[in-house]
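Handout, page 2. Input:
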Amino acid sequence: MRAVAMDERKRGWDAWEVKQALARMGVQSVLSSLGLLSRSTPRLAGGYMIRCPAHNERTPSCAVADKGKGIVWHCKGCDKGGSVLDLIMAVRGCTFQEAIQHGGELAGLVQPPDGAHATRPRTSPQPKAPQPTTEAPRYPPEAELDALLERCVRVNQDAAVAEYLSNQRGICPDAVAVRDLALALPSSPDGLPPWARRWHYTHHRIITPWCDSTGRVRSVTAWRIVEGEGAKRLAPSGATRRGLVLADATAREVLVAGRWPATNPNPPRVVVCEGEPDFVARAILVPLLTPPEYCVFGVGAGAWTEGIATRIPDGAVVCIMTHNDEPGERYARQIFDNLDPRCVVRRYKG
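Output:
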């Protein structure tokens, strides 16, 4: 019934009307309403440079501006872009028709009677704050994800990937390979899923799996191994990484069982890092020939959830090692709020 009611309301507006109304709001108001604007957001002629909503990035590479024909956006990192409605789709994870509805509401359009088109916004429109999404995250198709992982090779079996890890990151490829922390994209794009073929040409060759709260691999990210412009790491196009974490072998056991492994005599201890390089660098320090004293998780934007938190054993010592910046502090606070006082939570900086 709820979906039907929404469909009936959509008929009152068309895409052109909503785009015009959002253009009248202005780029600043639209970005603020979508939660994409902060005091530190760089300005452009007619707009702003934001962090792309279509892929995870730390440095803004997505331009949003009004060029006189409406608000448009384009990301130099992942090449996503389009109209303001495409931007809403990327932020909200919705369909085009739902984006029209969301856009009309953001612009304060009057809902027309009997299916007539709206022609004016309300007097002194007040942009609505974006509502928290309740839709399930969109991950790559399971069969395509499995096919990609099956085609990958170990990082120490690919000369270019091994050289990058060793020389550019100071990470031992053998240590990564033996722990199954990352894989190398095949040297040929043949047989890769559509959302991964571009990675071959952009040299995003290191593949890191991301797990859900049950320990199941649901997505991946790809690292770039050569210098260049654009995003250093990319996620599958059209998919989200929300609710997924990086996890070493013991961390996956914790996610699967919801408790510390019964075969490990050590007390439960958890280390949480931020981003793929920090995760891999920390995880290769875990000894292989003795029961691990701790497990390692990696997080990014939208990764940590209450579902992940519930899998951490009661009484565990949790060491948070996220970055010393605003996002890192935000991740740390969320983890602390989810686990305290059930666990002993410590924040490490430096």
